[in-house]
């Protein structure tokens, strides 16, 4: 079964890459339903959700189908253990001694914000900073409609989501119809639920910076980083091994059969009635469940899955896509690199060839059935895309002139190659 995540990249090209430098998931969803000190399975991605759960006292195994993504995540939090936390110097964020690298998602978001700022002044960094300092959701709603969700932006977004561009088509096809309208609605709704000033996901998505009110992450201990496809890993552990699981948006993109496959693997690997959290860009989740709290602004649904109820067939045509999902307001365009993707899902993709549980063996909660491989920090096969140049030509929607928007991420890729990180080869 072909799964789009097994290639380890969001854009067209061959080499695996760091897809997500950060995550865009609110762990309050998991913390609201996971029993204390649970043995938890998490999708690794950039490691933020796994780290939040470990800090809360859970025993976490983080799996990822991408060796490159997993090595990056594990190196971030290994450095935090060694040096005692996170620091920021000159606007560059470092976790311990390891810089938080901008993955493909973050590069696309930055291009999206730049494009939005060209057509709507409210999206310029200084103006956006003032918006994000607001504490009244009612005032935030008014500001959104008056200064941010302007006709020029709506037109830019409609054009942006008209084609896949550099985003891989197997991921692009997972988007729901009229994603521009869907994402604008979600952002407007999300900005009325909680104060911007204390919402780290609003700051990260709309400005590309960390929220000043959020404390820096503390050192993390005890996460087992496992290179594996999630269903194969779940089948490899003893029945009911995990108390809980969090799956990011693993079902956004894979073929329909993967939904049923994952459901059965969960029924084996997670204890009966153990909470399972799933995110999706769809309005209706592919596995039904009860809604959970969420401040991230992006997801169509965040649910505690009911594994006793049959799946809906997992139609990827209706599903969301981390590679393209991003921020409606930024005019995200995978065609132009203006895609505010946020996709908090590193990887999920079903690659049965990776099967089993290659846990490192340094987690006392690792099942006896899981032996062998170590964390693949030295085995990743390339952390960067093949020199993605993202260019767009967009007709000015209201000014009557051509607006030429060029967003190149080649320079940052070249710089990263010149200064290899511990997780790159």
From TrEMBL:
InterPro entries named in the record: DUF3419 (IPR021829), SAM-dependent_MTases_sf (IPR029063)
Supply the SUPFAM superfamilies for this chain. S-adenosyl-L-methionine-dependent methyltransferases
Q: Where is this region: Disordered?
A: 309-401
Which parts of the chain are coiled coil? none
The biased composition feature labelled Low complexity covers 309-383
Name of this protein: DUF3419 family protein
